[in-house]
## 1
Amino acid sequence: MFKNRYLGFKVLTAPVHFYTAALDQSTVLAFQDNELIGTGRIEEITEETVKIREERFMIANCTFVYAK
């Protein structure tokens, strides 16, 4: 069984999750190597990046979760 290291948080794993979070104006957390590197609402989405608070995060290098 898959063990979620972000226990209690819903991980954004598909493009539809990113677009839903952006439309709902949900706060998301961005992690890289288990370190929190960003938080806020998604402002823009490309195939490779997510823009949160004027900063771009590489989707391939980060894990994004809904904030509680």
## 2
Amino acid sequence: MEKELNEYLGKIERYLKPMAVSERVDIVKEIKSEILELQSHGVSAQQIMERLGNPKELAKAYLGEAIAKSSRFSWRRFSAVMAFYSLAGLGGMIVLPFTSICGIALMVSGAICPIAGLIKFAGHLMGYEIAEIGIEIGSFSANAMVFLPISILIGVALFILGKLLWKLTIVIIRSISKGKKQLGR
């Protein structure tokens, strides 16, 4: 394979670094296989690169497709989403960080909120009043017995809202990466 095509593949691989190694290798092999097939049909290196397009855009499409396969959260997916931001342009620099980071923060807060309620309730049962944990609105202050169910409801609501924002992140990524070029065309 020609030097410029190897450099092209190297650029794509660098843009795909946040992906799992196995996925990245499979994508590069797929593109390389397509390049070799096009070369066997007499297509020049320049024509192949024009057909495939900008390596950054091609990598963005593959990265978006890999992220969009599942809406489950994992730290590896989060790092892939962060890499996608850098490739996605203005929408990736404003909207995606907001939806993904807020989604994660709300999911974590949703998990912590009931724990705080349990800590306040356990402290109350042991005879301690933990003033740092609770709800105060004007002159109303929720005691430990009232705070526990409130903290659970608030925690569930925050977690659901966070999950919805994470799913919105995946929907946005899918819409951005729809422009994936089909290699065989």
## 3
Amino acid sequence: MQRLRLKADGRIVELRDGQEFPLAPAPLAPAAETGTPEVRDLRRRAQLTQQEFAAKLGVPVETIRNWEQGKRAPRGPARALLAVIAHAPETVFAALAKS
């Protein structure tokens, strides 16, 4: 029996003898295909600098830079948060400010 696992970054791996073996690398898809809004566009619409945006999200500014430059892609909860920010930025930032 083959055991497969879907990783958070979209890769599918096979589990054998306690080790993971990639079945096929997951290419980084453009934001339009993944449903993730472009981070730079979101930040600019909110009229925030990278530092301000990072502070509001509670992430290092390097993370924002990596997302905007395409070096990394937001995953999991960050991707969900960005999708919500795309629809209701004021609500999200107000909620984050309270915490």
